[in-house]
Amino acid sequence: MIPDDILIEAHHFWCGHLPSKDYFPAEKAGIWFERSDATDAQIFSIFGPFLDAVAANDWPVDQLDRAEAIGLVIMLDQFPRNIFRDDGRAFAYDATARRHARALVESGVERFALIERCFLYLPFEHSEDIADQEFSVALYEALLGDAPAAQADTYRNYLDFAIKHRDLIRRFGRFPHRNAVLGRENTPEEAAFLAEHGRGY
């Protein structure tokens, strides 16, 4: 049984209150970018029991409100990376997240806040398909173009990360840093890259 408000709760946990489309919830940045066992445990406790049910549910994405739509993507793309950190299961929900994200992008992104669009686009940045990666870069370029001048550096940083992800897929066809948890053997080039650069972004 999926709680009726689980997607809203996921959105609120990750994004907080967004009073305007260009509001940046700096108070939430710590849970996005800083590795924390406490945050991982909290996400597992609140959302972990419903992750598989949310992934399996046939969501009418065109009927979800703004927060529900973004909460769905966050739950399937972001939360598995916290719940299954350093585990191949972190990527098990990516295809489903990407399918929902694509439907939402195709329905029009104008209704979403800028920071919501950052998380809406991440399933494409996380993909090992080059077409998804090129799409990701194009989306983040458009997002930067829509950002207020005062926030340009913030959204340029998101674009820079998208470009770095795209360039890794162009070079290797996959993310080398995932090889260990997915049971994939590194090529000599990948091993050398990982030794010198780590994740590469």
UniProtKB/TrEMBL annotation:
It comes from the Bacteria. It holds the Pfam family DUF924. InterPro entries: DUF924, TPR-like_helical_dom_sf. This is Uncharacterized conserved protein, DUF924 family.
